[in-house]
Model the fold of this input.
Amino acid sequence: MNRATTVVIVGAGAAGITVAASLRRKQPALLVTLIDPATTHYYQPAFTLVGAGEFDFARTQRAQSSLIPPGAEWLQDRVTGFLPEQQTVTLASGPQVHYDYLVLCPGIQLDWDRIAGLRESLGRNGVCSNYSPEHVTYTWDCLRNFGGGTALFTQPPAPIKCAGAPQKIAYLAADYWRGRGVSAHARLHFLSAAGALFSVPYFSKALEKVAARHGIEIHLQHNLMAVNGSKRIATFECTGKDGAKTRLEMEFEMLHATPPQSAPDFIKQSPFAGAGGWVDVNPHTLQHVKYPNVFSLGDASSAPTSKTAAAVRKQAPVVVNNLLGLMAGRQPSPAYDGYTSCPLTTSLNTVMLAEFGYDGKVTPTFPLQPDRERRVWWLLKKYGLPPLYWDYMLKGYDWDIPHRPYPIS
Ligand code: UQ1
Done:
């Protein structure tokens, strides 16, 4: 007698739930098991808005149990290891789970402790971060309580999830403080370990103008190393043009910090990890380079694109189709072009909708000049995308609106 084919999915975030729902919809005979210890599922794309007082934090959260697709099984547990030769996953509570096919999408790890003093300072003394569900509402407290002085917004070395988020909150804060009349007493600095404001030069150029309009001073190659919360001093390592490193101390009233990030430790230590510890997949098929029955998508995968929910929206159908194809004896199709999207909040009512693929190719969904700040994208981000995420993407419906290359002169 044939036993049902088992697909085990590690991680029940945007990627895991979407893939599980779509697989169950297309192939109800499959046994689909999700493994994730978290009881709460967050709509993280709204955290920028929560930090700026534009979105209710309660509306970013749902019980994980309410999102598990009908017919799928959820093991609320941690993965401790993998045995690919035996096709098993080991769980923290003891048991081993067998798989025929494995999908790895556990997300990205926030390495708060790589910045000395940051974890202890967070949530007090004007130190906030939209990257922490526990502290995202404190960002809004900081914005409201800011009466002038120096505000710092930092970005660590790549890769991080939503690489636009560290600067988005700077623009929203600047706009909010202008409205409150505190701008005249404020000095705003954006300090990034990267060598450019954004990974795609076309958008980077447009964003430099946005920052200048808000009076935000940009400091590239400035990497936050330490935070002294009680003294309100941040220490940076600056890399000069000649590569020489210097230290810089800056006092602040408010610091919005973005933590360094990396692949989850249990992925780094697994046989699936490649360079940098990410799950080593073919960037176009999302199939593992060594283990054909293993796929990966989302923040933990090695696909060299910007890590966003929009990327997951385009990756999930590729993983699902390639998995089902593989079960039917077909070769995986190289259908993923690196599409990702970052809705850059450039003011309290405008968004620049950056959409791009591999090699920085600009690939908008709509035939509109992509580097323009638009009210309609603000409305899309605040009101349109959350229901599309909860009710459409997580339910396993594809909404694969095609995107096209945009000629850049
Ligand atoms: C998107 O598809 C998506 O994923 C669900 C997001 O995450 C919430 C986004 O922020 C954006 C901007 C997109 C892109 C969507 C369209 C309709 C172009």
In short: The pocket of ubiquinone-1 is lined by residues 45, 309-310, 313, 341, 343, 353, 365, 385, 389, 393 (CB under 6 Å).
